[in-house]
Amino acid sequence: MTKNKNNYKDSGVNISEGQEFVKDIKDITDKLSPSFSLGTIGSFSGYVEIPSNYENPVFALACDGVGTKMRIALRKQSLSTIGIDLVAMCVNDLIVSGAKPIAFLDYYGCSQLNRNQAKEVIEGIVEGCKISGCDLVGGETAEMPNHYKDNNFDLVGFSMGVNEKTKIIDGSSIKDGDIILGLPSSGFHSNGYSLINNVIGDQPDDKLLSELLTPTRIYVEEILSLNEKLDIKGMAHITGGGFEENLSRINENFTINIDKSAWQLPDIFLTIQELGGISDDEMFNVFNCGIGFCIIVDKSQLASALELNNELIEIGFISSRENLPFKFL
Questions:
Q1: Are 22 and 148 members of one domain?
Q2: Strand positions, DSSP E, the chain
Q3: 3-state SS class at 225
Q4: Burial readout 53-80 (b: 16 or more C-beta within 10 A, e: otherwise)
Q5: Most buried one in 32, 112, 140, 161, CB count within 10 A?
Q6: 65: three-class secondary structure by DSSP
Q7: 110 and 62 part of one domain
Q8: pLDDT digits (tens, 9 = 90+) for 108-130
């Protein structure tokens, strides 16, 4: 009796398709003009060259994902923007300390590789790298049919930045009376989508789904430019956990005061709030509510900051530590 022969393809992993996808990636990344990377996509590891204008360079590293925003993308069969989200969530974390993003890697895990779908994702990642000025130096594509189910897949990003050791922004110079300025978000970014998915349910509103897929704003250019001209004391990327969780991380010795009346909630936030019957407190504890990035400067630099970037909004201030490290006004 002849024993049945097993092979990898019958187990759900198509090696030749994966090799063809690597060629797809190389074709897509030809759109980039590498500034820091050495070699090409497809090697066992990627190398980056440190910019020569740093005297004592140190590296900043960040890792993040797109989360359940992917459920909206899969539902709408539109994956062209979630690669931008992936890059944005990583590089926006890097610049909080003043680092300049220079390299990015991705992990794409799926049940079975769909090349057309995966190419859409990679094209978005390349676009995100172009916007943020960093190089895509490599990544990993993994087919795991017994782990990922149906059309679900996972998307994770890893980014590296460089900074002068003496110029790391860590919030240590913050003092009583400093001003908090915010830059508008482009929507929900890539946070709170577990709640959003519960709110919208099976609602077939195509316009709403499209708006919920608005890619996360990448703040690299604006923040690096402001950092050259201002003495920024602290920064925060407003992600999951909203204002309190993210701003409270800057300096625990003071109280963060945020004036919610300083700006209006964008319509998409009001729509989700109304559909879900979500309280104001819950909205601000979960979402960025229209402000995606914050910087802290001395009050004397307020006018200069507003002149340098007319999108900046004064949203709060720092005060001596009270009973709470954070409060809304």
A1: yes
A2: 37-38, 47-48, 57-65, 100-110, 135-143, 153-164, 179-184, 234-237, 254-258, 291-297, 313-320, 326-328
A3: helix
A4: eeeeeeebebebbbbbbbebbbbeeebe
A5: 161
A6: strand
A7: yes
A8: 998 888 888 989 999 999 999 99
Phi-psi region of 148 (alpha: psi -120 to 50; beta: other; left: phi over 0): beta
Pairing assessment for the beta strands 57-65 and 153-164 based on DSSP bridges: antiparallel
Q: Where is the domain boundary, 100, 133, 167?
A: 167
- Residue 60's contacts (CB-CB under 8 Å, 6 or more residues apart) are 94, 97, 99, 160, 161, 162, 163
Orientation of helix 193-200 relative to helix 69-76, angle to 10°? 50
Cut 0.90: pTM above it: yes
**Backbone torsions φ then ψ of 39, nearest 5 degrees:** 85, -170
Q: How many Å apart are CA 254 and CA 133, to the nearest integer?
A: 34
224 lies in which domain range? 179-328
- 100 within 8 A of 161, measured Cβ to Cβ: yes
User: Based on the structure, what is the number of domains in the chain?
Assistant: 2
Please tell me whether residues 158 and 234 are part of one structural domain. no
Q: Distance between CA 29 and CA 31 in Å, rounded? A: 5
Secondary structure class of 62 (helix, strand, coil): strand
Please give the structure tokens belonging to residue 272: 């989700």
The answer to whether 222 and 292 are in contact (CB under 8 A) is no
> Same domain for 276 and 185?
yes
Distance, in Å, from the CA atom of 24 to the CA atom of 15, rounded to the nearest integer, reads 14
pLDDT at 143: 87
Q: How sure is the predictor about 3, in pLDDT bands with cuts at 50, 70 and 90? A: low
Q: Where does residue 128 rank: exposed (0-12), middle (13-18), buried (19+ CB within 10 A)? A: buried
Domain harbouring 60, CATH code: 3.30.1330.10
Average pLDDT over residues 285-309: 98
Task: Return d(Cα 170, Cα 233) in angstroms, integer.
Answer: 7
Examine the domain organization and report whether 209 and 285 are in the same domain: yes
